[in-house]
Every structure is written in structure tokens, then in C-alpha cells.
Amino acid sequence: MKKTFLLGFVFGIGGAVWLAGWYPFVDPVRLPSESGVARNGGRTESFHVGLPEDRIARVGRDVDPVPASLSLPDGPGFDDIRFELFRLRSASGKIVGVASRIRRGGDGGYTDWTLFLPARGALFLGSPDADPAPYARRRGAAPVVVGRVLQGSGEFSGLTGSFREDWRISGRDAEGWLAGEIELMTVTQDTGP
Length: 193
Hints:
Blueprint: H1 2-22, E1 36-37, E2 43-51, E3 55-60, E4 81-89, E5 95-104, E6 110-117, E7 121-128, E8 138-139, E9 142-152, E10 159-172, E11 178-190
Antiparallel strand pairs: 1-2, 2-11, 3-4, 4-5, 5-6, 6-7, 7-9, 8-9, 9-10, 10-11
């Protein structure tokens, strides 16, 4: 009886593992990418964030937090830093993921983006702002930030390239929040094996 129980237990565990290989328990919906082909053989893809409707959270010393209960820890390292979290949209306006933005001003400042796209992977973008060159081009009152694709996972693994962060501000809404759009245009290329 004991041997029968143990044999059944082992075959049950083995069968469950075998079945898990054939049937995925987590199968997130994968929206097709809306990428284009760049002239250099790479690919381009545009992501958008609507302001203020796509903002999920924001916290920093120089801004009102969203939601109001958020706050930064005390300390000198957090004086000129801002954290933001947004819904991420494709070029056609579909919500395809979540994006986080970390902005640090002052000497040696930077802007980092992390784009999370379920079933596709994550893309890590960075721009050192210590050099004023990225802010040389201006459209209206908002700068156009230019940076590099630093790393990727999943579908974005092994890609290098650049990105452009373009703020298109149309004004302010009734509550005083900036209204408009942030466009992140990526140009990537496979680095090969």
C-alpha cells in the first residue's frame, strides 16, 4: 500500500510537470508591435504617454505628489530627483504596458526610462543630462531629450540603439496639470551573437 501511494505520488508530480510544459498557466496577451524599419537596417518603435490621463504616480521635492500620500525619504540624495509612473501606449493609442521615469537634475543629472511590455519584455533607456547638447533642440517650452538604449529583456534582449523623448505640451487642464503627450521614439538594432 505504501509503495502504491509513493508510486502514484511520483507519477502525479511527473504528470503535472509534463502537463505544465504543454499548457502554459500564465499566457499574457501579446499585442503586436507597431515597429517600422529604419534606413540603417534597424527598427523604430514609438511609444506615447498622455498627460495627465496616463500618469499613475509621481513624487519629487519640486512637485505635488500623485497620489497625495506619496513622499520621498529624507536625505540629501533625494533633493533633486523625481519618480514618475505612467501607462504606456502604442502609436495607435492602445495601452501596451507601463513606463517608469526617473529624472535627476543638477550636476551630473540624468533621465532614465524603464518600459515594461507584458509578453514582450522590458526596455531600459538612459540619457545623461550633464551635457546641455540634448536640450539644444527645443519645441515650444519643452526640451527634446536624446539618449541611448541601455539594455533589454525578452524581445528586446541584445538590442542597442537610441531614443528620443519629446514633450508636446498643449497647455494645462482645469486642475492645473500639464496637458499634452510624451513621445518616446526608439531606434534599435540587434548586436548579434
